């Protein structure tokens, strides 16, 4: 699959952000549930995943955090309010940056949560600028993970940590699921990796692997099910507002049950 192009990813999210908010809520990412029968809402589950990642950053008041691919700012604002850290968020989407800064202002944390348009492939920050970096479902869109991680290693201070999530193949995708997976990755300009690819990627960026968790069972299936249910329950309303083709493109229902499609949480540190 061709690598995503930053400008095209930005245009995609300018287009899909409003639809994503209408269906996923203001957290444009997956949720985390402790068990398949958990009754936790999608909104609470997405906040749980943000908190799981933020807790692994080891940050507090005064820490400088880079939110790499900040979406509409909900995770970054939550981190700033919850930890007291100073958050800088970046995205290639002008629509997302506008909404993120508006959210920071309305939440009363505009002095500690600031968002700007920038490309993770060429981070415009000095070496050692940040105590921590969070990349929540953003590296999946990057044309070159090695280049992004090299920049992450550069802007982290010694001892700083990066926490990210990514899509990976838990096992070869069976023939019956390949069309759905290819469609999803293609439509949202994403790529996936194998678990084995990360240790050399991190070493090349001067980062040490601390934790690698397969959280597929706690994130993917339930998010796909709940999101598909929401989209289909409100399909006429959403189609009238966004167009039926766009709504169908956003619906992940055909991915339900493909357990080889995986979701990882990774923690690394700059020594």
UniProtKB/TrEMBL annotation:
Family annotation (Pfam families): Methyltransf_25 (PF13649)
Xref: Gene3D superfamilies: Vaccinia Virus protein VP39
GO biological process: methylation
Keyword DNA-binding: no
SUPFAM superfamilies to which the protein is assigned, alphabetical: S-adenosyl-L-methionine-dependent methyltransferases
Annotated ranges, domain Polyketide synthase-like methyltransferase: 36-252
Keyword Methyltransferase: yes
One MF annotation (Gene Ontology) recorded for this entry: methyltransferase activity
Record protein name field: Methyltransferase domain-containing protein
Native species: Streptomyces klenkii
Organism classification: Bacteria, Bacillati, Actinomycetota, Actinomycetes, Kitasatosporales
């Amino acid at each position: 699959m061709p690598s995503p192009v930053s400008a095209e990813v930005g245009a995609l999210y300018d287009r899909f952000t409003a639809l994503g908010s209408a269906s996923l809520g203001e957290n444009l990412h997956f949720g985390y549930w402790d068990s398949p029968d958990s009754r936790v809402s999608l909104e609470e589950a997405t906040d749980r995943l943000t908190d799981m990642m933020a807790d692994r950053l080891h940050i507090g008041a005064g820490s400088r955090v880079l939110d790499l691919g900040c979406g509409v700012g909900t995770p970054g604002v939550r981190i700033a309010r919850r930890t007291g850290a100073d958050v800088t968020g970046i995205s290639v989407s002008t629509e997302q940056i506008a909404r993120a800064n508006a959210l920071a202002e309305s939440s009363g944390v505009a002095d500690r949560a600031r968002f700007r348009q920038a490309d993770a492939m060429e981070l415009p920050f000095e070496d050692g600028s940040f105590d921590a970096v969070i990349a929540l479902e953003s590296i999946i869109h990057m044309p070159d993970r090695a280049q992004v991680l090299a920049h992450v290693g550069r802007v982290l201070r010694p001892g700083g940590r990066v926490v990210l999530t990514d899509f990976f193949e838990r096992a070869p995708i069976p023939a019956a699921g390949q069309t759905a997976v290819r469609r999803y990755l293609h439509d949202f300009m994403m790529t996936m990796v194998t678990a084995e690819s990360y240790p050399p990627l991190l070493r090349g960026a001067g980062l040490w692997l601390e934790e690698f968790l397969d959280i597929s069972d706690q994130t993917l299936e339930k998010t796909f099910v709940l999101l598909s249910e929401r989209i289909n329950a409100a399909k006429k309303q959403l189609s009238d507002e966004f167009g039926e083709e766009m709504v169908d493109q956003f619906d992940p229902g055909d991915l339900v049950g493909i357990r080889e499609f995986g979701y990882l949480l990774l923690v690394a540190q700059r020594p």
